[in-house]
Each structure stands twice: as C-alpha cells, then as structure tokens.
C-alpha cells in the first residue's frame, strides 16, 4: 500500500512594508493562474492576501477563510481544482499567519470589516465565501454584516456555539502556553481535532495526526503568542450572533466522524441559514479538508460553480433545511 507524505509550506513569507493595497509580487502556479500577493492595512494593522487570478471566470471569485491554525498557504492543493472557475483568494487576517499581532479586544466584527476593506481595495464586489472552523465564525459574521458581497456561502466544520469543555480547555491551555508546555498542548489539541481511534474509518488519520502535532509543537514564540491571544479572543467575543443571514445558496459540510464540531452541531448551523443544505463527507473528521483534499476540492468546486452536490460518491445524503419566516 502506497504511503503519502503530507507537507505544508512554511508560514514565514514576508515582504517589505508596502502602502495599503500595494502590489507585492507575482508568479504563476500549476493551475495556470497568475499569483499576486497584496499587503493591506486596516485600522493600523497590516495583513496579507494571496490571489490566484482567473482571467476568464465562470463564477465570482472564491474567498477561502481557513481555521485558526491555517494561513493563506494552507489551501495550495485546492488551486488546481478551483482556479479554473474563478480567482482564488486566501488571506492572513490581522492576528494570524504573517499578519500583525491583533489584541484580543478585536473580535469577529473587526475581522469581518477587515475582509470588507480587502475586497473593496481589490475591487471585488461579490465572492463565493468558503469558511472553515474559526474562519466560519468570521465568514458568517461577514455575510451578516455585508450580505450584498456574498454570492454563495459554504461553512465547513462549523458550530453555533463553543462547547463548554473546549472553553475550559482553552483556559487551561492559556496557562500552559505561559509555562512553555508546547508538547502537552500539541498533544491535547491533536486529540481535539482528530476523532478518537475507533470512532469510524478516517482516511490518513495517523498521518494527519502526526502533521497536526508537528505543526503545533513546532510553533515559534510569536506563533504561540498569537495562539494564546486567539484563545482569549474566542472567550471574549460571541462566536455566533443571531442576526439576519442573507438568503443566498448555502451549504454546511463536515466530516461524518467530526467529534469537535459534530454533524449535529453542523445541522444546528444549517437550520439557522435560509434554505440551507447540510452534508457530511465520508471517512473523515474535523480535518476533512486535509484528510480528503481531492474530494473536498471537488465539493467546493461544484458548490461554487453552481452545480448539484446531490448524490456524490464521497458524501452521505444531502439534508435540506427550510427556515420558517418568523425564525430568528
């Protein structure tokens, strides 16, 4: 049986300080798209976005917001499948990746506003928004506050609330970070992200577990500082706020064995969205986009391209949710 080595790019990309919205360099990828890095500044905080351009798009640009431990390079494997449809945008928002440190007093509202600033600077009026885990909390707030800028909404591994046991763990991790107990934190976080052995068949479970542990345990001092501030941000701000959500095509997806943001939690989120759909990707857990990248990229491409996501060989049956007009 063949084995696969999992690798991710280093998060150390940086450029010299540039004016807001300045061009930071271009290249090309295997997808054929022209790559552009842009530095922006919002409310005094510098951040960076990565665009892979499609000059003949068939859909609106695709904006991907990854989880708190991901950066703008974490979705490189998806470019070959998504760029033929439209320009692909990934971003290190303030407080993440190589962007400026962001104090915890700034929450999802601020990050959603930073996204609006970015799209305005890029002259992009509407996007297909794909948002995973913590990126889902920011993405949903963006959709609530700036509905005219969202063409479609896909939430991955999303929940409407932070489980109390996870909140308690974050408080403990904050103390451990101060003590420098990174190996213990890495082990506990890996166990949180990955489904426990025996839960069900999960593709590449062992390999992805090793990757997650190595990434967390290998964090630099600045990355640990950002992680600690991120945990404080989670505790200080609303994860979900019951505000109106635009009636755009919406899909909530997760791994069928996700034990962090369970399928039941995903269904709760789908029920909050107008006429949303929900599905689970087979043989995967919370890290389905890593464990089953090829099929997950296909799912994203189908949804963002306006194709049917019914009866796919790698998902369980699609569930539909129709929110009543009086529901909040």
UniProtKB/TrEMBL annotation:
Protein name per UniProt: Alpha/beta hydrolase
What positions belong to coiled-coil segments? none
Quote the InterPro entries the UniProt record gives.
AB_hydrolase_1, AB_hydrolase_fold, AB_hydrolase_sf
- Region Disordered: start-end pairs: 1-31
Gene3D superfamilies according to UniProt: alpha/beta hydrolase (3.40.50.1820)
Biased composition, class Polar residues, residue ranges:
1-14
Q: Which domain of life is it from?
A: Bacteria
Q: Does Transferase appear among the keywords?
A: no
**Any idea where the AB hydrolase-1 domain is?**
63-298
Pfam families for this protein = Abhydrolase_6 (PF12697)
What UniProt keywords apply to this chain's record, in alphabetical order? Hydrolase
GO terms, molecular function:
hydrolase activity
């Amino acid at each position: 049986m063949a084995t696969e080595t999992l690798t991710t790019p280093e998060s150390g990309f940086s450029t010299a300080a540039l004016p807001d919205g300045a061009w930071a360099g271009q290249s090309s990828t295997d997808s054929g798209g022209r790559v552009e890095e842009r530095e922006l500044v919002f409310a005094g905080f510098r951040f960076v976005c990565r665009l892979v351009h499609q000059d003949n798009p068939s859909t609106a640009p695709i904006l991907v917001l990854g989880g708190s431990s991901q950066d703008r390079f974490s979705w490189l494997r998806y470019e070959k499948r998504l760029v033929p449809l439209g320009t692909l945008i990934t971003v290190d928002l303030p407080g993440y990746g190589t962007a400026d440190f962001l104090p915890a007093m700034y929450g999802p509202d601020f990050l959603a506003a930073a996204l609006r600033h970015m799209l305005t600077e890029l002259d992009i009026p509407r996007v297909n928004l794909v948002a995973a885990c913590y990126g889902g909390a920011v993405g949903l707030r963006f959709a609530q506050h700036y509905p005219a800028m969202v063409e479609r909404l896909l939430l991955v591994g999303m929940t409407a609330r932070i489980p109390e046991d996870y909140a308690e763990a974050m408080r403990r991790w904050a103390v451990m970070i101060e003590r420098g107990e990174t190996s213990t934190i890495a082990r506990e976080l890996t166990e949180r992200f990955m489904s426990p052995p025996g839960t069900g068949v999960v593709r590449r479970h062992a390999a992805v577990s090793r990757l997650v542990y190595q990434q967390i345990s290998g964090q630099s001092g600045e990355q640990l500082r950002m992680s600690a501030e991120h945990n404080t941000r989670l505790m200080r701000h609303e994860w979900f706020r019951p505000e109106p959500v635009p009636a755009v095509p919406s899909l909530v997806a997760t791994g069928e064995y996700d034990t962090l943001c369970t399928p039941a939690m995903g269904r709760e989120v789908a029920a909050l969205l107008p006429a949303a759909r929900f599905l689970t990707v087979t043989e995967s857990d919370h890290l389905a986009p890593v464990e089953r990248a090829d099929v997950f990229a296909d799912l994203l491409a189908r949804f963002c391209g306006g194709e049917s996501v019914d009866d796919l060989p790698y998902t369980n049956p699609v569930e539909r949710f129709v929110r009543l007009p009086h529901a909040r």
